[in-house]
Amino acid sequence: MAKESSTSLRKGRLGVAGIVFFVVAASAPLVGMTGAVPVAMLLGNGAATPGAYLAVGITLLIFSVGYAAMSHKVTNAGAFFAYVGKGLGVNAGVGSAYASIVGYVTIQLAIYGFFGLTMGLTMAQFGVDLAWWVWALIAWLLVTGLSLLSVDIGAKILGVLLAVELLSLLVTAVAILINGGPEGANVGASFDLGLVFAGGFAGTAGIALAFAFASFIGFEATAIYGEESKNPKRDVPRATYWAIGIISGLFAVVSFAMVTGMGAGAIIDQVVERSGGLADPSAVLFSLAAEYVSPEIVVVMALLVVTSLFAGLLAFQNAAARYFFAMGRGGVMPSALGRTNAAGAPQNGAILTSVIAAAVIIAFAAAGLDPFLNLFSWMSGVAVIAVVAVEILVSVAVIAFFQKNGGGNLWNSKIAPGASIVLLIAGLYMLMARFNLLAGTAADGVDPSLPESGWALSGLGWFLVLSPFIAFIIGFVVSSTNKSKNAALVKDFA
Length: 494
Fold this sequence. Notes:
Distance between the termini: 28 Å
Structural class: mainly alpha
Strand content: under 5%
Helix content: over 70%
Mean pLDDT: 86
């Protein structure tokens, strides 16, 4: 019995709401509203940015049809790894796990950089002046400690933080929409398909859609918590749909309110004026909140940006730890990673995730690199490419699995996953082509905001953009050359 508990996550700890808290917290909606949305408006498709977020939300809902159908067949803390392995074989599954780990580790690293910078600026206003990496390491201590506790404790903390964060966004959005702004609510300017896709995938529409994809990273983590949920076959599909619905609806409604508050016809000039030419993107939402609600809410929202980032750190810590756990238990990483502590948490996976984070934070600090322009921008760009690439593999695996084993219906086993493959490939193309803008890794002398600058990457940019694919190849080779270690995986997923 002791052996079983030491290699199993604690069951029955999370319901639908708990899983949704982790997933929506990982998307850090307030951070996206203050960081990504203004940039997407200015460099992308302006007033049609809400439509870009809605389009990406619909794409991911289509992806989730096959993903949810597969969750009835597989319950594993590795989620994507197990799904791909079940449909495409163990070697492809392990390769996708290595790529997923790159995605979850890098997005957490990105948030550490943003958290350190934001916390430093916020606390400096109260006379506490510490370097960004000091604040990052303080958060690191708290995140590490919480990730070693029972998963439901983290869910409760995230639930409180998330509820207040969502409330502040909705209060601001409702206040603006009731007022109507300088021009009134112009639904057509934000959601007309011709305007949403104006400029093409290689131009302004592609830029807005790329930022929108980046804002959704983390939703797919619902299945990671399947083993710890009360009813995996029911809870995971419901949590997936709820999470995507909440995230896409929130981004679409709040960004539409932002457009309304500034006026669709003057959106570009307004974003430039309010943000100082994107010197401070958060000033766009904050100035609107001060104007349409009250100056006091801005203080609250500034603090909530910090808690939103912290919630994201904890959510991705848990996700990465569970991937390491699944790989260790499956025999394609050291078996010590596949052990849990008395609280049922994947202790060694959490510790390894924290060690990697601490090493990178210290390395970036020692090299004098910027927490936002370097750590955040580089790592977040890598993360979203990794996740979307693996989502494509999952969709292929869904079709292959149901083709081979039967079950499912035409919609959830063929049409929806087939459509998601096409849509996600388009998304991946935009992300990679616009990586120089997303991550700030343009080749010398190139303006990444110009439509003709797609794929113009520096050497570092090419390494970063290809790193998830390199990780996939490494994982595939590790799996295919260590047959004896993969016996359990072959049995489960072949």
